[in-house]
Specification:
10 strands, two-stranded antiparallel ribbon, alpha+beta, eight-stranded antiparallel β-sheet, 2 domains, elongated
Length: 230
């Protein structure tokens, strides 16, 4: 169950009387294409570059971050579901901003971790009423760079997929890796994992003899030699 900041909840409750100024915040951790080091970039739906407090999606504690404005950030609807389906959020920004250009061209944004926050500004002071609440955690699955025709508007759309649920669909190759398993005190359980499916194991009357050598692989030879010893 989420426990939003009381000031944030009060701003939502009083929106009918005082109005409301919601803003979206987009935080992404991209990688340097040369050395793989991480670089954090923040964009928001306001006009100017600001430094604000948001709730960290990793720790749940307030952190201070700098977000670049004037990028025409647009965030699609974020569905609220109770099942385990992977949700995809459509996010887009202007392609002509220098920060955006550096983020997608200068750095590697493939599978970059993303945090999306929603904040509320006070209608009178235009200041945040509380740290922006984390609304979605994910990673960039697609980020095509679109160049518009003359007179058109160039934008970069991001397909951001839910991170936690996506992780549940990944398989662990070490479960079938012989090289990984033998590090555990010489465990050779996976020695024949890649070839056992093609083995021809004799049984019944055929068990009295062995297949001709021309039809046996080197793994079969070791198997049958072990049978003869027993």
């Amino acid at each position: 169950m989420r426990n939003p900041n009381p000031a944030f909840a009060a701003a939502l409750t009083g929106a009918r009387d005082r109005g409301i100024l919601p803003r979206k915040f987009f935080w992404v951790t991209v990688r340097d294409r040369v050395d793989g080091s991480e670089e954090e970039v923040g964009l928001w739906s306001g006009d100017d570059t600001i430094t604000v407090d948001v709730i960290s999606g990793q720790t749940g504690l307030p952190v201070t971050r700098t977000y670049v404005g004037g990028v025409d950030l647009q965030v699609g609807n974020i569905p609220r579901v109770s099942d385990m389906t992977i949700q995809t959020i459509d996010v887009s920004v202007s392609a002509i901003d220098s920060t955006v250009q550096l983020m997608v061209r200068g750095y590697d944004a493939r599978l970059a971790p993303v945090e999306i926050h929603t904040g509320v500004l006070d209608p009178d002071t235009r200041l945040p009423v509380s740290p922006a609440e984390v609304e979605f955690l994910g990673q960039i699955d697609e980020a095509p760079i679109e160049t518009a025709a003359v007179g058109g508007e160039s934008r970069i759309p991001f397909a951001v997929r839910s991170d936690g649920i996506l992780m549940l669909t990944r398989t662990n190759p070490k479960k079938r890796s012989y090289e990984a398993q033998k590090r555990r005190q010489g465990d050779e359980w996976g020695l024949y994992a890649n070839s056992v499916g093609t083995w021809r194991v004799p049984w019944g009357e055929e068990a009295q003899g062995t297949p001709p050598a021309s039809s046996r692989s080197k793994f079969d030879e070791k198997f049958f030699s072990g049978m003869r010893k027993t």
